[in-house]
Each structure stands twice: as structure tokens, then as C-alpha cells.
Amino acid sequence: MELRELGNTGLKVSTVGFGAAPLGSVYGPITKEDAIASVRHALDLGINFFTSLCTTLSLSYVEGGIWMLGIALKAVGVLRSDYIVSTKCGHCKEGFDFSAERVTRSIDESLSRLQLDYVDILQCHDIELGLFIGS
Predict the structure, then answer these.
(1) How many helices (H) and strands (E) does the chain have?
(2) Would residue 120 be called left, alpha or beta, if left means φ above 0 and alpha means ψ between -120 and 50 degrees?
(3) Is residue 54 over pLDDT 90?
(4) CB of 65 within 8 A of CB of 32?
(5) Which residue has the higher pLDDT, 90 or 100?
(6) How far lies 4's CA from each of 8, 9, 73, 77, in Å?
(7) What is the pTM of this model?
(8) Better-predicted residue by pLDDT, 73 or 22
(9) Could you confirm whether 83 is annotated as catalytic?
């Protein structure tokens, strides 16, 4: 798998990323075992870039509020420095909120639900809709 530098960040991301929505049963049920196998297979293929769902819209809460992606990454036993995780903020079940307070809370929620100490990338999700629809 080809890795490319992401701008001036120093991050080298795989040209193919792994979107974690399917792990949250967004498109149909998935077992914990299949989720772990999917993440393991992606890593075996050289994919190192994983995107989690929005913090409050996710259906992937399992086992005490932990997201399936967090469970799978922990289960495969790969070093944290060997993969890149992005998460999203802004589009919440309460509506659109890009305030500093809500963005900070979104990051904290993602870290807790992913069982990580840090995320590499934070994406403002659907910011254009927030501008047109409002908070």
C-alpha cells in the first residue's frame, strides 16, 4: 500500500482509508469478531488510516460505550504509532455546533469511546450544512 504525506503534518497516510461506519452496524449488523477481522485485514493490506464516526451520531457503541473501532484496534495489538485515526465534530444529535466548548467535548468523547490518548486528525463534519441550516 502506498503511503503519502498529508500536507505538512508529517503524517504518512495510506492512499486507501478505512471508514468505520460499517463497524457501527450502520449498513447492517456486524459481530465484534467480524469487526476485529476487518480491521486486522485492513492493517495486513497496509491501510493505516482509520476514520471514526461522529461522536454522538454513531450506532457503534458497544461494551460500555466503547466504539467498535476502538475495540478492534486494541484487539489486533498494533502499536498506536503504526496507525492514524481521524474523528469528526460539529454534527451532533443536538444539531450543528462548532463552538469551542462543543468541539472540545467532541474530542474528549471520541478519545473515551475509542480508548485512545489522542487522535491524529479532527474533521469538522458537515460544516457547510451548519452554515445553511444553523445550530
Answers:
(1) 4, 10
(2) alpha
(3) no
(4) no
(5) 100
(6) 11, 11, 22, 24
(7) 0.82
(8) 73
(9) no
